[in-house]
Structures are given as C-alpha cells and as structure tokens.
Amino acid sequence: MVSWLIEGTMSDGRTFRPSDWVDRISGAVASFGPDHRLRYGLVRPCFVKGKKCLLMRKSLENDNPAAFDFVRSFVRSNGLQMTELASESKEHGLVLGAVA
Which CATH class is domain 3-96? Predict the structure, then answer.
C-alpha cells in the first residue's frame, strides 16, 4: 500500500514544534469506532527510528480530499519532510501503533 511518511524535521533540519503535532493532525482526521475508541484510518501516528512521525495513505486523496488537502497544506506551510513509501514494511524502521 502506497503511503507518505511525514517527519517532524523541517527542511532546514530543525525539529518542528509543538512536539504533539502528530497527535493533533492524526486526531483531527480520526473517527470514533462503535466501541467509542478513536480509530486511525488513513492518517496515523507511527515511530521511525525512535522519532514520532505521521503516516498518510495515498488513498486519502480520493477518500477524503479535504483531509488530504489539509495535511498536505500543513506539510508545505511548515516545511516538513515527506517521503513516499511503496509499502509499510519494517525495512523503513516503521513501527505502527506504538505508544511513547
């Protein structure tokens, strides 16, 4: 599944602040399941090499264009690093569902 990995490092190498930006963005796009728990679908927090990142599935562009535009605009306006991943495999050091 094609996804984008969005890191909290800006184009000039500085760490983006506030540090909870991943939680804010993923929470804004998440929904509540039948068990009243927050469910991450196409945008979710993850860890890569110990750093908290955001994983955005490419299908978000078709499934929820407004959310896609929101995330892309946030990335561009803050100069965050965004890398396309052909798969969500461990070869990228990706850890899903981890809690800090």
Answer: alpha beta
Question: pLDDT of the chain along its 100 residues, tens only?
Answer: 689 999 999 989 999 999 999 999 999 988 888 898 888 889 999 998 889 999 999 999 999 999 999 999 999 999 999 999 886 555 455 656 544 4
* Alpha-carbon torsion (15, 19, 23, 28), positive or negative: negative
Q: How would you class 11 by CB atoms within 10 Å of its CB: exposed for 0-12, middle for 13-18, buried for 19 or more?
A: exposed
| Alpha-carbon distances of 15 from 4, 8, 28, 63, 80, rounded to whole Å | 19, 6, 21, 30, 9
Domain boundaries, the chain: 3-96
